[in-house]
Write a structure and sequence with these properties.
The chain has helices at residues 12-24, 56-66, 80-85, 87-108, 139-152, 178-187, 205-218, 234-245, 275-281, 288-299, and strands at 2-7, 27-33, 46-50, 70-73, 111-117, 158-163, 166-167, 192-195, 203-204, 222-225, 252-255. By secondary structure, it is of the alpha/beta class. The chain has one domain (2-171, 201-231, 273-287): Rossmann fold. The structure holds NADPH dihydro-nicotinamide-adenine-dinucleotide phosphate and dtdp-4-keto-L-rhamnose (TDO). The site of NADPH dihydro-nicotinamide-adenine-dinucleotide phosphate (NDP) has 28 residues, from α1 and β5.
């Protein structure tokens, strides 16, 4: 049985991945995150331990204690605007902590799967494949690219799973996501202004977890693009979400980057080409509507989250 240490296990991907690894029956999982566990229930073959990955001593001590075969680093500062204002905190978590994990993996000859983002690209030429050249526009994007470079230079057996605009539902979320935000706003009767000049391939959290499990299952090394397969604007995403949940589309107003601004610059056109993950891992993401349907089932208690 493969022993896997997951960081950021309270997060959106972390919770999905812990559940998936438990369900397959092939992994013993050490789920770690900062603070108490927010996993909804005790799961077979899963133990939880608090771990702040910015604490080098704590990271190395946990590696010595648990001796994992695989490490999946899902923890990150994922609030892109916060990364712009708290640059020190961003580097500590998104870059320096990755160096501590690499150190632990080197000592115990563990495989490292690290999560990264479409925001390493400038969005001038999306959708991108794994060979495209990064040119981040934001501090978040730069931090994630710097961490990728550490992983690639580590001498470890490593994989990097890059993803795009993840949506989904887990218990006690510390951060919402675009689909839940659209749904809640429309349910509350609030007007929303959504951009039509950015393009993304939004990713169902379950699909991303599946992609990570496939990498672990096959000991697949290198960079893999793991996202949804449909390129769309956030405006289109909002309309399709409204239709799927039977909500009022008239509340959704089209805007663009000249009128809607955020503190961190977003790349205009990203999205991923998935050919490598499809051919090498048999990665098969849900369609966007199928992803929304699963979310609807989870929200109504017809499927587990
Ligand atoms: N979400 C997205 O749209 C995208 C995400 N990614 C990447 O995918 C990965 C997973 O993202 P996602 O699951 O959505 O992120 P989340 O923000 O949902 O989860 C990150 C988790 O890391 C935890 N964490 C924060 N600081 C620390 C720390 N010092 N030590 C240990 N754990 C910590 C957070 O804890 P707490 O909950 O307590 O804050 C949170 O549970 C990240 O690497 C991200 O950069 C890439 C592209 C898109
Ligand atoms: C809040 C809001 C967002 N948007 C658009 C802008 C943007 O393209 C999209 C999502 O905006 P957010 O600020 O929620 O998410 P954002 O920070 O852009 O999401 C990113 O998260 C990090 C972690 C990543 O790695 C990236 O892949 C990326 O998906 O929605 C609007 O058009 N209007 C709005 O009022």
């Amino acid at each position: 049985m493969k022993k896997v240490l997951i960081t950021g296990a309270n997060g959106l991907l972390g919770q999905k991945l812990v559940r998936l690894l438990s369900e397959t029956g092939n992994y013993h999982t050490i789920a770690t995150s900062r603070g108490e566990s927010r996993l909804s229930e005790a799961l077979p073959r899963v133990t939880y331990q608090a771990l702040d990955i910015t604490d080098r001593t704590a990271v190395l001590a946990l590696f010595d204690e648990q001796q994992p075969d695989y490490v999946v680093n899902t923890a990150a500062m994922t609030n892109v605007d916060q990364c712009e204002s708290d640059r020190e905190g961003c580097i500590a978590l998104n870059v320096d902590a990755v160096a501590y994990l690499i150190e632990g993996c080197q000592k115990h000859n563990a495989f490292l799967l690290h999560l990264s983002t479409d925001f390493i690209f400038d969005g001038e030429a999306g959708p991108y494949d794994e060979t495209a050249t990064p040119n981040p526009l934001s501090f978040y994007g730069q931090s994630k690219w710097d961490a990728e470079k550490l992983v690639e230079a580590s001498g470890l057996r490593w994989a990097i799973g890059r993803t795009v605009l993840v949506y989904g539902l887990v218990p006690q979320m510390s951060r919402s996501n675009i689909v839940l935000w659209v749904k809640k706003s429309l349910e509350d009767g609030k007007d929303i202004h959504v951009v039509d000049d950015q393009w993304r391939t939004p990713t169902l959290a379950e699909d991303l977890a599946q992609g990570c499990e496939l990498i672990l299952r096959h000991d697949a090394t290198g960079i893999f693009h793991l996202s949804g397969d449909e390129l769309m604007t956030p405006y289109e995403l909002a309309l399709r979400t409204a239709r799927a949940f039977g909500l009022n589309e008239a509340l959704i107003h089209q805007t663009d980057g000249s009128r809607f601004t955020q503190p961190a610059k977003r790349p205009p056109r990203t999205g991923f080409i998935l050919d490598k993950a499809k051919s090498q891992l048999a990665y098969r993401p849900h369609s966007f509507e199928a992803g929304l349907h699963l979310l609807e089932q989870q929200l109504t208690g017809k499927a587990v989250i």
